[in-house]
TrEMBL record:
Entries under InterPro entries matching the protein: Beta-barrel_OMP, OMP/PagP_B-barrel
Protein name as it appears in the record: Porin family protein
Source organism, top-level taxon: Bacteria
Species this chain originates from: Marinobacter confluentis
Keywords: Signal
Signal sequence interval, chain numbering: 1-32
Domain Outer membrane protein beta-barrel: 19-206
One Pfam family in the UniProt entry: OMP_b-brl
Length: 206
């Protein structure tokens, strides 16, 4: 049995030597991928379903409108990125069949973190601020009804708010990604309306 020990040690050493180049190759490949993404800029386009909730302090109605946006961002490090979005409303939504709400435009700035969950997908979270201008008016035949005050005043009452979102992206071609995400677009501190965003889009890194 003792005579087998040198042979086992030699076999272990040979196996370790054989694995070393493969380990080094994988490590270099991962490092190259990290270096390639850090410092990259990306451009994208997205479509968004906008959920207007609690538009009035005393009412719980909600409505859905739609928006579209362009985005530009940069990877400031391996795991962090900064991003700017400029968007506009596409179709208005209706709350309780009484109030029509829409976004004229919005601009969002985010700082976020991303982490690879597979070789082709990443999970990310973003936090930032949004400036928004919108519009609200009563639907035909609703004069004097529940949402009269909001229709007579500016909606949203406050134009600047904290925003956040969570998302996933998937690389479908070299440096080309599709993404899915959801979060809060803004909160109107005057009417207590909470407006959430659910988006799908595509972006390309270069």
């Amino acid at each position: 049995m003792k005579s087998l020990q040198p042979m086992k040690s030699l076999a272990n050493l040979t196996f370790a030597i054989a694995l070393f180049p493969a380990t080094l190759l994988v490590s270099q490949s991962a490092s190259a991928r990290e270096e390639m993404r850090e410092g990259r800029t990306y451009l994208g386009v997205m479509g968004t379903r906008v959920n207007h909730r609690s538009v009035d302090e005393t009412l719980n109605g909600q409505g859905w409108s739609s928006a579209a946006a362009l985005l530009i961002g940069t990877h400031v490090s391996e795991y962090f990125h900064a991003e700017l979005r400029l968007g506009t409303g596409v179709t208005p939504g209706t709350v309780d069949q009484q109030l029509e709400v829409d976004l004229d435009y919005f601009a969002s700035w985010y700082f976020g973190g991303h982490y690879p969950i597979t070789s082709y997908s990443n999970a990310y979270a973003q936090f930032g601020f949004t400036h928004v201008k919108g519009d609200a008016k009563l639907t035909d035949g609703q004069r004097g009804q529940n949402y009269q005050d909001i229709a007579d005043n500016k909606y949203p009452g406050s134009s600047f708010s904290v925003s956040w979102l969570l998302g996933l992206d998937f690389e479908v071609i070299d440096n080309g990604f599709v993404f899915l995400e959801g979060g809060k677009l803004f909160e109107d501190t005057e009417t207590n309306a909470n407006v959430f965003q659910y988006s799908v889009g595509a972006k390309y890194e270069f």
